[in-house]
Known about the structure:
Blueprint: H1 2-8, H2 18-33, H3 42-60, E1 74-75, E2 81-82, H4 84-116, H5 121-127, H6 132-147, H7 149-158, H8 163-168, H9 176-181, H10 183-194, H11 198-201
Antiparallel strand pairs: 1-2
Amino acid sequence: xxxxxxxxxxxxxxxxxxxxxxxxxxxxxxxxxxxxxxxxxxxxxxxxxxxxxxxxxxxxxxxxxxxxxxxxxxxxxxxxxxxxxxxxxxxxxxxxxxxxxxxxxxxxxxxxxxxxxxxxxxxxxxxxxxxxxxxxxxxxxxxxxxxxxxxxxxxxxxxxxxxxxxxxxxxxxxxxxxxxxxxxxxxxxxxxxxxxxxxxxxxxxxx
Length: 207
């Protein structure tokens, strides 16, 4: 309804306006057509589909007449005509494609770095702490390792956590047994931070 209202330049009433029905049908179409493997945001994709179907609707009829393209076009000071709806849709698609490619490259780099430590993505699925508090403690340990140059250096050099040092510091509150059990997960998070893998860092809670 937000997209429909913006396209119409007025509030669209779901129970009374044809544009609301067109928007809902378009939204259903977006659900059917969306490819989760594309990496694109569903919300952005749905907005584009709704906008396009509303434009088609406006072109076909408004009170029985076809709406000219000029209804959606604007002219700048130099006389150049553009269509802000189509431009916005094109820019959204372009941004989504760029972001998806950057995310793919980050994941490929992460996979490569993990491989140097003998860790695969499947290992992370199996070894990730199940409970939120345990996961947050493991992430805190990873941040500490990444943030202390001597520990980060140890990790890079030995491909292992500095377990003795971690166990001896009382600030982390994790036993050696827990550290060993969560070793792969902690190493993976530490590597995300040390390598500054942007798209994966965004998923970590702020510490």
